[in-house]
What we know:
Blueprint: E1 3-7, E2 10-13, E3 18-25, E4 32-39, E5 46-51, E6 57-59, E7 67-72, E8 77-82, E9 91-99, E10 119-120, E11 124-129
Parallel strand pairs: 2-11
Antiparallel strand pairs: 1-3, 3-8, 4-5, 4-9, 5-6, 7-8, 9-10, 9-11
Amino acid sequence: QVQVVESGGGLVQAGGSLRLSCTVSGLNFDDYNIGWFRQAPGKEREGISCINWRSTTFYADSMKGRFAISRDNSKNTVYLQMNSLKPEDTAVYYCAAVHWSKGCKVVVPPGTSTEAVNYWGQGTQVTISS
């Protein structure tokens, strides 16, 4: 069956960096766009970044310049490098596999649609201390 597994979360001080990883198995990785969402306590899940099957990248405006997404198709893995972290980045970060036909527009605003995601990971906690 399909498995989407995130890793790399943790506790860092403001201004620090983290790299999240998302490894997918049980599907043809090349047929899927991979996105990252996050959900802070009491808030809706928001799409923050996506990389499509051709490795074109997309970001929510608030992430541009701080976050970088990449994929290694040989390892079925996507990475999210997060720099200059702020306390407001504290959230559970979720990896999502979206069939290529839906595009990354269903991940990043303004077209974010959690219902369009085909497979979710279990989430990894990121906590930024001030």
